[in-house]
């Protein structure tokens, strides 16, 4: 499914009478040196920070924060965002994700009402491999690019960013071949027969 | 959560995919081809000229309306990794609860079927088909023996299920604490408070004209009503769905309501739509469903007994029987937490090629279901248009009122919103009712499940449903329910039992909806 490497993440929290939920840290060895995308499913984590260990100036490896307190649950006492899927892209990070040797996911859940909080189905994708994408029609690959609005800073858009985006769109269209639009046929019977006796429970 | 650019591409792709192959698509293609004969279309600038032609001839507007309709109905795309069940309902425990509830309904229907020894569906014999065709327009005169049939469930059964909803990851301690809600709903969904509601419903504010308030006899029509009608006529002339949706937030003039609602719901009653309705009618004639008896029973018990709606009995059968056979309704299950019941024909259990949905539209009607259709009969008299309007209202709004989901317009959120509003703004009343064993939701639940149909006077109900369409949300139902309690607070404080509280709130037919909403949202001291 796109070559993402699933990484098991233990549940944190516990059902003890501990009042202060606070933080949980999940450390793992980075499966790939270059990270393009991180995909996961939330389970009641309110804020996420990510730190990566990579070579700093002077050669020695140091820990750098690449994501600080990303809000996953806008209102930590309520369900909003609690079981949603999230995707973190390279260009959203505060630092480069090259030569990464280890990663730390710092999960915060300030609300005491939840028994457990963690992130699940964690997948880390290197560049060149795309995360599973939804189907797109083939015409999308023939789209003329939108006119570039006048840039406020007088700079040209970053060509690398543009080419990655176009590349992404192209891959999306390739994944979806011309899928026939589901035309309404309206038939509910099977060869003219609709004799139904009992409903099925499965 | 998706980055904006990727979310936009996904949305565009989804809308295009849905509109591709639709009749609008073929009509646009035909128009574009026809336009080639026109002198203003030049070969050098073919693309631009055709685009301009579509714009001036009003076809671009039709396309805009169709796109707007899609955006309104379908949820925004979540991450591509999200499986289909996540789009239906993101919370696992709610999906599970909905599954259990559905299983209960299936068991109930199966046991009714075995007890009465009637098949769920069978082909109608030829003479019966002929008979039904002859009396299609007066099915109300039929008096079949329905005494053995019972509704599959009533709203109060559903309320019991919602009361028992628990999030297994939430500390639902036995001891009362800040974690337990004081009302009947114990799931921690996010609901809006009054400041947020004021912002969302700001067109209902005190300084903005409303139909339902500023068109009363005491107010000269020059102040608001005449201008509002004029604007409404302009919106209809422009045929712009988005503008119509904005317009109806201040209420629809009676004469324009039918057309405005059709514009918002993007219903145009084309020949192919009429044909589709006729096809459904022939399906009704050919196959007899057990669900038909449930519909008959429901109409006889509810709408036929209602002073306002009994005249529409025949229309209700014509709409609801066809609705049960409409497989296009199955599409809404992609964004509904519910799943259509499945069965196998000729007893061939487990063999996929004999698998069918039952009923064909996947919706099992419950007690009071026909009340969703009844108010629409005041607006639409042509059966196929009435049918399409109802179907669109159902797949946009009403389905959320009888399925378990975390959606802000879902019934669970509406219940929690109602209870939270009441607790926050009428704490004494809430406490008092709770103490006497009259939890407020027990009384207001049936109002919200039916979107107040059958409880309010029809003109007031239609003003309320104007706002449901205008804001594309059902939250106004919860706000109105709280406003009704606020209005009758003085009487309610004096009652000492649930029965007495029900009596105080039994008759809502004299209530004026818009002043109640306005006072509760904008004129109550918080």
UniProtKB/TrEMBL annotation, chain A:
InterPro entries: Nicolin-1. GO terms for cellular component: nucleoplasm. It comes from the Eukaryota. This is Nicolin-1. It comes from Chloebia gouldiae.
UniProtKB/TrEMBL annotation, chain B:
Signal peptide: none annotated. It comes from the Eukaryota. Residues 251-472 form the Rab-GAP TBC domain. This is Rab-GAP TBC domain-containing protein. Pfam families: RabGAP-TBC (PF00566). Transmembrane segments: none annotated. SUPFAM superfamilies: Ypt/Rab-GAP domain of gyp1p.
